[in-house]
Design goal:
The complex is a heterotrimer of chains A (about 180), B (about 170) and C (about 400). Chain A has about 180 residues and is an alpha/beta fold. Chain A is built from six helices and six strands, in the order ββαβαβαβαβαα. Helices cover about 35% and strands about 15% of the residues of chain A. In chain A, helix 1 packs antiparallel against helix 5 and helix 2 crosses helix 5. Chain A is globular, with a radius of gyration of 18 Å. Chain B has about 170 residues and is of the alpha/beta class. Classes of the chains: A alpha/beta (about 180), B alpha/beta (about 170), C mainly alpha (about 400).
């Protein structure tokens, strides 16, 4: 028996030479294994992300091979590091420039809640300005934790509906942040 | 080890600036003196250009706030003489109402951002500085955050107020 | 400083464009912004904006006891955080007048030199990436993982280490750490030689970096540069050699100095510093064997937290623990300035104490902040691609820039 692991197929009907499943499952599968992240690295978590992308932990095994620094071409906004109040509008602009479907990953304690910096100049969590899908705690989180958070995002991508942007909950969420 | 002892350094400074140099002390071997705002640039120029002393390296400029003193804001210069391997610390104290100082950018280009940082945190206005504006804080901030009366935490945050443990 | 002619406003044919090399940019290693005015590919002028990750370390430090400031110092230069930690501990030990046993000094040297190597790996690797050579970076990152494993043996964490305590270390170096360090000393020189063979005489790299952003020693000194940048410009100022701390004067190492301060010189100086760090670690390992092997902290019960078994079983340890944590031990009411040779330059700590548990004022003399102010004046007249390489070679760490 070989020990090559293949991704499990979604539930569907199989036959000789064909496989029928619903469209959103197939699209979800395709999307989740080819996410293009935007590494919004500000501080120490950015260095830990560099270690995750390097050969020992290798995030590109999970499909995140092509890092995009342009928000127009990215799917996943990975916010890594402390966001100060001066940086907040910049982050919001980057998020607004991303096209749907888009997901946000807050890596580290500073991006999730301000971390150890409870000061006048640090934004206490990026969810004050943009909606966040997955939070990865840690200061900095180990690369295994980053990969775990990335897999959570992949599960979200696989299981949500085809056009999340049309669902009323999502639109209510964006409205609460003042995003049209 | 340093080629000039602190006594020699002090005597050559006192030779030119006798009355203007006060509060001489040597915490941990680093000669510390205090002078006035009118004489600081002359003192720094003397230390930099004197052939025997050669304090050509400006290590840092920073400030400190003592709210209970008569002269609350102190501006502190650290200089280093690479040739003689000796450091010196010079303090200037000014009262809160008129916190202005002459700029050291006439002597060292490196003083530019150091003075901007001091202005940003303590409100010390350096006269003659080419571009005195805030550097680390948000541009439209009106207060000077490192002063002792300014709180550390963000005053607008409500969800962390805890009855038992404070913030 | 300028090795290209600068086109001025008097020429009616030129039209300048504004480029925002913004806070989020793949080439800026951290969040700082440069608004550049370009004439085609040539930079006419630039304005730097920093503060996008200002976390108010100095203000936080006024509200924390001495031992809780160590995690803050970690997050300044996070590529080589043990150097920041050790520098802070040495500042407090200078203030309190604590003498360290020799073995602790040697242990500190091993950790600090490993941190210096890991910072230079990132800087030189990323300089390679910015010129388009990704392989060197990827090969060298593996050795950073080896260094992380060595840190994990002593303090448990990889990047922001919080290693050591005021008075020494929290636990003794175990044999696994020594084995891993020896293995690193065997394997890393091979990789470093390969890295040098890939870059040092590579035609493309040399053409990209030679005579780019050359700096005279007078300009560098006037802008208060320090560290590898100043040494590449020709001034041999190294805090480890001039004002030795932690027994560096017993060690035999050289301080590499460059000639004209251009990017190629900075690259070579950093590589050579990695070789010298390897020499220092080897010497430290030999010297540690001669010291009694159970000493890992100074005998200062007033400032070094006792081990937990003693706290629960021993009355004096309990009292000391209480006094240290609650801040009942008086500290000298004076001020101290101590500097260490960080990976970027002279990292200084100016501590003004008022006798209590936390400092009255703590100021960090951050080399990245002071080195970066020359960037905008230096890039006048440069090509845009040269300015990017220049920024890479300055090794600006955003955490240290904004503190």
């Amino acid at each position: 028996m070989s020990d090559i692991q293949i991704v499990e197929a979604p539930p569907g009907i199989e036959g000789a030479g064909f496989f029928a499943t619903s469209l959103d499952k197939a699209v979800g599968l395709a999307r989740s294994y080819s996410l293009w992240p935007l590494p919004f690295a500000t501080s120490c978590c950015g260095i830990e992300f560099m270690a995750t992308m390097a050969s020992t932990y290798d995030l590109s095994r999970f499909g995140a091979e092509r890092l995009s620094f342009s928000p127009r071409q990215a799917d996943l906004l990975m916010v890594m590091g402390t966001i100060s109040k001066k940086m907040g509008p910049v982050l919001r602009q980057v998020y607004l420039q991303m096209a749907e479907p888009r997901w946000v990953l807050a890596m580290g304690a500073c991006a999730s809640s301000g971390g150890i910096f409870d000061t006048y100049s640090v934004l206490q969590g990026i969810d004050e300005i943009i909606p966040v899908d997955v939070y990865i705690p840690g200061c900095p989180p180990r690369p295994e934790a980053v990969i775990d958070g990335f897999i959570q995002i992949q599960k979200l991508v696989q299981t949500e509906s085809l056009r999340r942007r049309d669902t009323p909950e999502y639109q209510k969420l964006l409205a609460s942040y003042g995003i049209q | 080890m340093s080629k000039i002892t602190n006594e020699e350094l002090l005597s050559s400074i006192k030779g030119k600036f006798d009355a203007d140099v006060t509060h001489v002390s040597e915490p941990f071997g680093l000669l510390t003196l205090e002078t006035s705002r009118e004489r600081i640039i002359d003192l720094l120029t003397f230390l930099k250009t004197d052939a025997a002393l050669q304090f050509i390296y400006l290590t840092d400029i920073t400030a400190i706030h003592y709210p209970e003193s008569e002269k609350q804001i102190g501006i502190i210069y650290h200089l280093h003489s690479l040739v003689n391997n000796v450091r010196i610390r010079i303090k200037v104290f000014v009262a809160d109402g008129d916190v202005t100082m002459p700029t050291a950018t006439v002597l060292w280009n490196g003083a530019n951002w150091m003075e901007r940082e001091t202005y940003d945190f303590y409100g010390v206005v350096f006269e003659g500085h080419p571009d005195l504006r805030r550097i680390l804080n948000v541009d439209d901030m009106t207060v000077f955050p490192m002063r002792k009366e300014y709180p550390l935490e963000d005053p607008n945050r409500v969800d962390k107020r805890d009855y038992f443990f404070g913030r | 400083m300028q090795n290209h002619p600068v086109y001025t406003d008097n020429d009616p044919q030129t039209e300048y464009s504004t480029l925002n090399l913004g806070p989020t940019h793949p080439a800026t290693h951290g969040v700082f912004q440069n608004v550049l005015t370009l004439d085609g590919e040539r930079i006419v002028s630039g304005v730097s904006t920093i503060g996008y990750i200002h976390r108010a370390f100095e203000k936080i430090a006024e509200h924390r006891p001495f031992y809780q400031i160590t995690p803050l110092t970690d997050r300044m230069n996070y590529c080589s955080s043990p150097i920041n930690n050790m520098g802070w501990h040495m500042t407090v030990e200078k203030l309190l007048g604590i003498q360290m046993p020799k073995r602790v000094d040697y242990m500190r040297i091993i950790i600090m030199e490993l941190a210096r190597i890991s910072d230079h790996i990132i800087c030189n690797g990323v300089l390679g990436v910015d010129t388009g050579a990704f392989t060197g970076f990827l090969y060298m990152m593996k050795y950073r993982e080896d260094i992380y494993e060595i840190y994990e043996e002593i303090c448990g964490s990889r990047l922001t280490t919080n290693v050591g305590r005021i008075g020494g270390f929290e636990r003794n170096f175990n044999h696994i750490l020594f084995e891993k360090t020896r293995k690193f000393l065997k394997e890393f020189p091979v990789a470093l030689k390969e890295f040098e063979a890939l870059f040092n005489r590579n035609r493309i790299f040399v053409d990209r970096t030679k005579d780019v952003a050359a700096v005279t020693a007078e300009d560098a000194l006037s802008y208060s540069w320090s560290g590898p940048l100043l040494r590449a410009a020709g001034v041999d100022y190294d805090v480890r050699a001039m004002e030795p701390y932690s027994s560096y004067d017993e060690f035999d190492f050289e301080v590499p100095v460059g000639t004209n301060g251009d990017v190629y010189n900075r690259f070579l100086v950093r590589n050579e510093e990695m070789w010298q760090s390897l020499r220092l670690i080897e010497q430290a390992l030999k010297k540690i064997e001669k010291e009694p092997s159970d000493v890992f902290h100074a005998d200062v019960p007033e400032f070094y937290l006792p081990p937990k078994e003693d706290v629960y079983n021993n009355m004096e340890a309990l009292i000391y623990h209480f006094k240290i944590v609650m801040g009942e031990i008086p500290t000298p009411n004076t001020e101290v300035y101590h500097s260490v040779e960080g990976a970027n330059g002279e990292l200084g700590f100016y501590l003004v104490n008022d006798g209590g548990r936390s400092p009255y004022r703590l100021h960090f003399r951050r080399p990245s902040f002071i080195n970066y102010q020359m960037y905008a004046p230096m890039s006048r007249g440069m090509l845009l691609s040269d300015a990017i390489i220049n920024m890479s070679s300055l090794n600006i760490i955003a955490g240290e820039l904004d503190a």
